[in-house]
Request: fold
Amino acid sequence: MTLEVCLYGSLAQYGSESAQSFYAQLRPTVPPGTTMRDLLASLGIPLEEKGITFVNAVLTDMPGLQADLDLVLQDGDHIGLFSPTYMWPYQYRFGVRMSPKLEEALQQHPDGGLHHSYAEGE
Amino acid sequence: MAKILRVNMTDLTAKYEDPPEKYALWGGRGFTTAVTYHEVLPTCHPLGPLNKLVIAPGWVSGTAAPTSGRTSFGGKSPLTGTIKESNAGGLASQKIARLGLKGIIVEGLPKEPGKWWTLKITKDGATFLPADDIAGKGMYEVCKILAERHGKVAIIGIGPAGEMKLTNAGICVNDTENTAGRYAGRGGLGAVMGSKGLKAIVIDDTGGPGVPIANKELFDQGRKKMADSSREHAITKKDGALNSYGTAVLVNILNEAGGFPTRNFSSGRFELAAQISGEAINAGVKERGGEGRVGHPCHPGCIIQCSNIWPKPDGSFHVSVQEYESVWSLGADCGIGNLDDTGELIWLCNDIGLDTIEAGNTIAIAMEGGLLKFGDAEGAKKLLAEVRTGSPLGRIIGNGGVFTARALGVTRVPAVKGQCMPAYEPRVVKGIGITYATSTMGADHTSGYTIAPEILAVGGKVDPFAVSKADLSQAFQATTAFIDASGYCLFNAFHILDIPSGMEGMVESVAGALGTDWKVEHIAKVGMEILKMERAFNEAAGFTKADDRLPDFMTYEKLPPHNTVFDVSNEELDKVYG
Reply:
């Protein structure tokens, strides 16, 4: 099956050579049953370099949570990957569509996830 | 004690007053709102003799508190008809504060229409200088001329749009490089300044008394906690998200989320978003070099430094600043995906004196109305340049999105209370839709900054998931009002939400400067006092619950890629201030 993957900022280095320094768009072919973790491994992206993540415009991860590694990807999925440098302040994502796993992870977080950053020590 | 400078444009007098009790405690937005609430007839014509232009530094502006140089401008808005506060960076607030001024109130209309004045304020007083020779000029040239005449001064001014009293006219403040890069853009306060025959204000704080600090120990402890918190957090630290990519760090994120309004809010995704993103700005600045810069401060003493200077291909100065809202409004919303084009459009807005958010929305509406095609960057530049000429078409465009939509028969008008929306699609980011609908300012993205839940204590509930979006929105709006009164840049909300000592530091620095006993739990309470005055003004001006709504198309037109509508009920919206 084929995916569409967009890599932003420093993650663009894991894209093809034709990519711009700050943005890469790839169409990798992967076996059925591929998970987010498998995709990252096949692209050579270390887990600690993964931050805000989208699958088909649904928010599946925030920096420091790793809430979507076991997500099984489907043919034609659009995946957007950002490095942990990125931010998305709470008031600008308050009410967006999130994956059930991410919602669960945020609810387990102190204060129910009403924060800007979830990385260690911040 | 800091004084109020009351300026009368009818008889050209400027008097210093001791602040009455009702204003004594307020700074920034608190001051502009209190004066507008107590002194401006809510039903007045915003461009008539009964409206006032109020200018105020925040509580800690002009002190050593980090990132605290915001100037608030207020009055009744000619764009929305509501009360308005719009604030900007640049040089003004610190210099006003160091002259021992709490605020400036400009009132009256000139006896001789067509005659223009510059108000010069120094430690020795305020004088009126004829400004007919700079009338009609764009703000880049005005900044240059006034700096040649008066030296290193803060400049507040309006471009031709303000002189023509167009309702999308903003008020400009010069920045560290003395360019026209900082705007109190929203709500048309530039037209209010224009109605008073005031082209510019020049502020020289040489020899000024400085800002008194009531409790230096507490203030110093607070400002240090603020600085530490700002320098530690991933969003605000050096080489962090804002410092590296500017606010346009959000372009690709909102686009991936399907919430990046595109081609007049007809889609949530723009295929060229990456080309106008913060990452592209950063790469372009590095590649072109020269005068280009990222991590640029919009005012002295800013330690976040989210601004930038965009260079032309040869490395020379083009414009400051390519920020999120502007590259979106003049880019994606118009189907334009090139930073040199957005840079030129922003430069035109800065020079002519227009708010970039409203101007981009207006061009997008003109595109929808068939005046030009989506993606036509050259056409967009011509349309903005038309505003400068004062032609009938230019005046239509200069009056903003709602006015232009009416002229062209366009019904997809993304506005609340007459003010067009910023770059977050409410059909996707539903929380911000609630804030757009219920803000006292019209559709405004800066009205609902998030503050830590322990501060909110909304309805006594500690679990935010047990709290309705409406309650959260009200609490966010109240805490935002507090920050807007402080002079601290709102972006401090990013780090103090996550770092409790930063939050304490903000309150301690304010309490130390003012000599109050405020603690963290006072933030929402004090902020709510400001909102109450604003709501009361709007109510007296004729606004009702029916105005606290998003435009109807958002409730029935499904937005791709999510194909969702705005489905927060009116009951929920009414609960925000219920």
Q: What stands out?
A: Chain B touches chain A through 56 residues (CB under 8 Å). Chain B has 24 helices and 17 strands.
